[in-house]
Amino acid sequence: MPWSSSTPTDEQGRKTLPAQAVSPGTEDRENGTAAGGAHREWRAPDKSIGHVYVRWGRENCGENAETIYSGVVGSGYYHHHGGGSDHQCLPMEGVEWNNTVAGYQHRSYMYGTEYEVESDGYFSTDNMGSITIPEDYDVPCSVCHVLRSAHVMIPARLSCPTDWIKEYSGYLMSEKHDHNGNKNFICVDGAPNIRAETSTSNSAAHLYLVEASCGSLPCGPYISGYELTCVVCTM
Q1: CB–CB of 156/92 below 8 Å?
Q2: pLDDT-based confidence at 8, cuts 50/70/90?
Q3: What is the largest CA-CA distance in the chain?
Q4: Which residue, among 55, 71, 172, has the nearest Cα to 122 in the 3D structure?
Q5: Domains plus CATH for the chain?
Q6: Which of 38, 98, 167, 232 has its CA 20 to 30 Å from the CA of residue 57?
Q7: What is the C-alpha separation between 166 and 168, in angstroms, rounded?
C-alpha cells in the first residue's frame, strides 16, 4: 500500500495504513487486489489464443473450427478391470514411437472403440454413406481449435445458453452398465461418420447410448429409459 503523507507518527513522521483484509478466493478482480492486499494485474480472456475440444464421432471439425488432426477413438478393453477409464482421440497420421520393446509386456492396453447402436432412428445417416445402423463400426474423432476462450459439454441439452456458440450436438454415450470397464461419458455427434470396412466386432471398447434413470435422477425433467442428448458449446 502507498505511504500516507497526511498522518505523521512520533518516530517516522508518517505511517502506513494496514492492508485491506481479503479472504482467499474473494479477491477484488476489478481493482487488482489479491488476497492479503498484494497487487494483481487483471486481464480479460484473450480470444485470439483459442480453445481446443474433441468432436467425437466425426472425422473433421465444423466450418468455424480448425481441424488440428483426425483420428480414431481409443480406450481400455470393455471387460478389463484395470487400464484407462477415459477416451482418447488417437491420430491416424504421423504416429511416432520411442524406445519400444517388441511383443506384449502385459502392462496397460489401448483398444479401438466401436459403436454399439443396434437400431436406426437415433443418428442422422447423412455422413454414413449407405449405412443406416452404425453397429460395430469403429468410431472416428477430430481435435478442433476455435478462436474462443472456453468450451463446455452440456448433457441433456441440444442448444447452448445465451451468448454461447453451438459446435455440435448429439447423444451422450459410454460403456455398457454391466461391463467391467467403466468409461467416462462423451458427447458423440448426432450425424456421425463411421470408419468404412470396420463393421466386424473386435476386441474393443464400446459406446452405448446412455439412458436416464429417474428416481435417483429427478423424475420431473428426466424420464426413465429415454436416451440422453448433449451439446458442445464455446464462447
Answers
A1: no
A2: very low
A3: 91
A4: 172
A5: 1-43 (no CATH), 45-235 (2.170.240)
A6: 98
A7: 6
